[in-house]
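Hi X.,

You mentioned you wanted examples for the new student's onboarding notes, showing what a folding record looks like when two proteins sit in one file. Here is a clean example. The first protein comes first, with its sequence line followed by its C-alpha cells.
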Amino acid sequence: MGAPVARLGLAALTLLLFAAPALGATLEMSEPVVMRAAAVAQTPQGFIGSTATITITSAANGSGHVFLDTFPLTEVDMQGSARLAARVATQTSGKDLHAHDFFFVVRSGAQQIGGPSAGAAMTVGAIAAMNGWNVRDDVLMTGTVNPDGTVGPVGGIAEKAAAAAQVGIVRFLFPSGQELAPLGEDRIVDIPTYCRDELSIECIAVADVIDAVGLMTDHVIERPPLTGNVTGEDYLAQLAPLGAALVADAQAILAEAERAHAAAPESAAKSALGERLESARETLARAERAAANETYYTAASLSFQSSIEMRYVREASGYLSAQDAAAAHAASMADARSIVRRAQSTIDAERVRDTNSFEAVGAAQSRLMEAEARLALGESLLVEAASPRALFDALYNASYAAERAETAEWWLLLSEGFPRGEPVDAAALEETARDIITTSTEEIAYVEAVFRGAGATGVLTRSRELLDDADAAMERGFYAAAMLHALEASVRASVALEIAGFGGSVPASKFDVAQQNAARAIQGARARGVESLLAQSAYEFGLSLEDPAEQLTFLGVARVTGNLAGLPGLFSEARAPESRFQGIAPTARVDVVFLAVAFAVGIALGVGTGLAAMMPGKTEAQREAEERAPAQEGPAWDLPAAPSVDQEEGTMREP
C-alpha cells in the first residue's frame, strides 16, 4: 500500500503545483442581478409562453471574458447573445469591455435554451450589474439586441406576454415595430391592446436598451440633447466641393452624350436612347437644385444616377454610328474595364486606419464590389453571336460599372479631409464584422418566418442579397464593407416588418421618430469625435425621398451607422480571447490559457501515476518466463499512411 499511496500523493501535489500560479488577485464581483426573461417552449400543442431566470454578475477588474452557465442545454446563439450583451452593455455605460468579466447563469423549464430573444434583457441586466442597480421583479422583456443598442424583432410575443401575466408580471416590454403580432395560427392582435384588455398588464414597445433600462431599473441613462444642425460644418465643407465636382462631371458627360446622340443614324434604338437622355437631363436638373440647396450628398447621388444613363447614351450612340461597330463596342468595354481596374488597385491597397476612415473605406469597398459585379455581368453577355439586345445591355452594365468605380474612388477622397481618429485593430474589426453578420442573419431569418406565416414570399430579397454581399466582402478581407452590407440588410428587414405591421400606411409619427433617432445618433458620434460621413449622407438622402420604405430605410441606416461610429472598444483595440469555460467562474482572477494547460498536464500526470500505482506488479517468475518465451509475429496488418491535412474530410480551415 505504501508505494501506491505515495504515487497518488505525488500526483495530487503535481496538480496543485500546476494550478497554484492561477490563484491570483480576487475578482471584484458586483452584487448579482436576478431577472426573469420571456421564452417560448415547444409542446405537442404548439408553442406556449414560458419564463426563464437569469442571474448576472460582473467583475470590474476582469479581462473581457464572458462566462455562461445554462440548465438545461444551450444552443450556440445563446452564447453569442451573452457576448453581444456584454459588449453593448459596456458601450452604453461608457465602460471598457476588456476591463470587465461577465457571468450569466440561465435557468429555464424548457428542454433546451436557445434563440437570441433574451439578448436585450441580458444587456439590461449587465448594465444594472455594472452600476449596482436592481432590476424590477414585476417587469419582463423580450427582444434581441443589435450591436448599436437597438432592440431587434423576435417571435412569440403574444404567447410570451400571456406567460408573463401568469407569473405576476405587470409590465411587459417588446421590440418597437412589432405592435401587431400573431396569436396562434389564425389571429393577429395589437399587442398593447391585447395586453390591456385580455391580460390586464401593460405592454410597452421599446426601441433600444436605453429605453428598456429606464423601464426595468427606474434609473435613467441620459441621451445627448439634439442641438444645432444635424449635418456638421466639416461634413458640409467636404461634401460641397466634391458634390459640385460630380455635378460638373455629369454636365460634361451630358454634353458628350448629346453630341454622340445627334450624330447617330435614325433608328428605333436612337429613339429609345433619346428618351433615356431626356430622363437623365431631368435627374441632372434635380442634382443641380440639390447642390443649390446645400444638400450635397443628394446632389452627388442624383449626379451619379444621371451619369450612368448619359454615359450609356454616349457609348451606345457611338456604337450605332461606328463603321466598325464591333471595334467600337470592344473599346467601350475596355474603357470601363480600365476604370474598374484603376479603382481596384487603389482600394485593394487601402485599409481602415482609424475610426474616421472606417466609413469612407467601407463605402469605397462596397462600391468597388458593385462595380466589379456589374462589369462581370456585362462581359458575361458577350457570348458568340450575342443578340443586339445583349450587346446594348453589356454597354449599360459597363457604363454602370465605370461610374460606380469612380464613385468608389470619390469616397476615399472624402476621408482625407478629416483628422485621424482612434486606431483600428484589424482583428477586432474582423470580429465585429462577424458578430454583425451573425446578428443580421438571425434577424432576417425571423422576419422571413413571419412573412412566410402570412403567405408572403420574396419580401426580403434585397436583404438576402446584401447578406450575400457581406459574406463575399468577408472572404475578401473587406471587413468594413461587410459590416455596412449586413447593417443595411438588417435595417431593410426591420423596415419591411414595421410597414407590414402598419398595414402599409405608415403614420407620420413614425417618420418623426426615425428622423430624431438618426439625428441623435449622428450627434452622438460627433460627441465621440467622429464625423459620421455615412450617417449624415444617409440622413440627408433619406429626407429627400418620397417612398416611405426607402425613407425609413435610409434614416435607419443613418441611425445604425451613427450609433456605431467611434464607440469605445468596438474595434479600436485587440479583443481578449474568448473563454472556453462554461459555468460560474471561480472567485480568483486567472490566466485562462495557463490554467487550461496546468489542469490538463496535472490531470494527465495524476491519472497516469494513479493507474500505475493501482496496477499489480509482475512476479519474478513471470518476468523470467517472458524472457524465455520465443518472439511471436503478429498479424500482417496493411496500415495506410496517415492522411495529410488536405486528405482529411470535414476539416474546417481558415481561407
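Then the second protein repeats the pattern, sequence line and then C-alpha cells:
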Amino acid sequence: MRIQHWLLGIGSVVAAVFTVAPIFWVRYIPAHDYPFHLARIAILSMGEKSALFGTYYHFGSWLLPNMAMDAVALPLTFVMSPEMAGKLFLALTQLAFLGGCLTLHAVAFKRWSAWPLLSGLLFYNGIFLFGFFNYLFAAAFALWGAALWLWSRPGWGRRCVAFGVAVVLMWGHMGGFAVYAILVGSFQLHTHLVGVSREKWPVALRELVLDAAPFIASMALFLLVSPVSERAGDGLTYSPWLGAKPYAALFSLQSGVLWADVMVLLGLVALILTLFLTRQLVVNRLLLTAAAMLWLAFVVLPPDMLGSSFADVRIVPLAAMVTLIALGTVKTPTRWAEALVLTLALSLGLVKTAALVRGWQSDQLVIESVVNAMKKIPSGSTLFAATAALEPSMVLTNPGAREAWHPPLKHIGSYASVFGDVFVPMTFADRHKQPMVVVDKYLPIKEFHGDNPFKVYQPSDLVALAKRITEQTHLPGAPALGDVFLLVVGTDLYPTLPTLAGYSVFLADDSFVIFQATSPALPGAVTPAIGVPHGG
C-alpha cells in the first residue's frame, strides 16, 4: 500500500508538471482575451509611474464578480513582471483544477486514487482558448469548496463556511459561484431526497432550505454592494439557432490540437470499456448527480446574462470533469486497474502537453512579429485596431474557422499597453467587469472604438474606417491623443493594400500593417484606395 501511495504521489507531481508546462514554455499565451487581461495588470501594476494610469484610466470598483486575476496577479507584480505574474496566475488555475479534482474525488470515494489525474486531459479547453481566466480560476476553487462541503459535518458551522466560500468565489467570478452552488445543491438534493421516505420529506425540505441560506445570503450581499447589480435587468438572451449549444459544447472541450483531442477521447473510451467489462469500474452517485445538474444547467442557461458572454458554454468543461471523476476503480488486492489508469493518464498527458507546446510554439512567430512592431510605437501615442481576418468562433465547421485560432489575434493590439505607454481604446475597461475604467475625458474615444477591433474585410472598409478615425480625433474639443496609429491585422487577405490619405505606413509585415496618422490631418481627408503592393 505504501508503494502505491508513493507511485500516486509521484504520478501527481508529473501530472502537475504536464499541466503547467505549456504556460511556461512559450512567452505569449495564444488565448483570445489574454492580451487585454495582461494589459490591465500591467497598467494597474505601474500605477502613477505609468503615463496611462491617471491620464486615460483610473480605478473603478473592486466589488465586482470578476476579480480573480486582479486579486491574484496584481499583488504578484510587486515581486515579478506583469508577464510572469499573469503566467503564474494561469499556472495556479491549472494546478487548482488538478488538486480540486483529486480532492473532490477522494472525499466522495473516501480514498485517494489515480483516476482523477485523467481530468488533467481536459484542462486546456475552448474556455481556456477564449481566455475566460477569471471564471476558470473561480471554477477551479469551486471544486475545492465542494470537497470541503462534503468533508465537513452538517450544521451551521458548515453553512457559515459555505457563505464565506461563496462570497470569495463570487468576487473571483460569478460563474465560479454558480458552479459551487450547483455542486453543493446537487449533493444536498441527492442526500435529502433520493431514497428518503415521504414521511421524512418535510424534514428533508427544511434542511434543503437551510443549506441554501449561505448562497441566498451571498447573492443578496452581491446585489446590495456591487455595481453589477445594475445589469440585473438586462434580461436573458437565447440564440434562435438550435445548433448553437451543440457546436459550442464541442468547441469548449477542444484544446486547439484536434488530433490530440481525438487521441484523448479514444483513450478514455477504451479505458472505461476495459474497466467496465472487467468489472473494475465503479460510479459515485453523488458526483454523478452533480454532473447531471451541471449538464442540465448548460442546457437551461442562456448564452448571455448579466453582461457575460457564453455563460452556458463555460459550464461544459466543468460538467465533463465532474462526469469523469464520478467514475473510479474498485479496490482490488493487485490494484492493476489503478496502475492502468495511472499509466494512461501520464501517457496521454505527455502526448497532449507535447502537442500543445508544439502548436503554441508555431503561434509565437505570428504573435511576436506583431508585438515587436508595436513596441516601436512611441510612448504617449494612441493605437486603434482593426482586422480583415476571420473572427475566432466556436463554430469550427466554417472554412478558415480553425485557422483563426492559430493564433487568435483579435485583441493583440492590447499588448501595446504592456510594453509601452500606448493608449489602446479597445482594451476592456468596463466598470461592471474590470476595476480599471476610462476617465470621462476619453470616454468618447472608448465608445467610438468599443471593446473589439473594427472589421475591415474589404479595402474599402479600411478606407472608410481611416476617415472615421480622422473625423473622430478632430472633433471640436477632442482630447489630445498624441500620435495616432492604426493596427490592421489580416492584410494578407487584401489583393492590394490601400493607400490612406492622411496616413503613412509605419511598419508592415506579411499579415499586418501599422499605419501612422500624418500631420496635419484634417477631418475627412481620406481619399479612395489606390493599389499599392501588399507588404510595401
